[in-house]
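Appendix B. One record, verbatim.
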Amino acid sequence: HEATMKDLNDEIESMDAKRSETEESVSSLQSMMDIVTSERDGLASQLQSAIEELERGALNKMVVSHEATMKDLNDEIESMDAKRSETEESVSSLQSMMDIVTSERDGLASQLQSAIEELE
């Protein structure tokens, strides 16, 4: 009976030792998991920052490209505006010349009419 009690006590002590080792292993694994989780979160944060930086870079490139396009369009508009202004000046000049020619024609037509009337 004493031997059985001793065997049971030895077995209980052995089981307690194994339980203690298991708890230490679980605790150690939990600590390692916490470290790995923290490292993972840090890397995820770095990755997110890198992605955001890339997106900002891409957006900046798009903005620069759009600004260049807008400058080209503005230059083209200014060029077209200058040509329009030149065209308006040409039209105005031609209108003035036409008024002069029309006046000269009317004067010559009047002189011709007077000459015809004198011949009659």
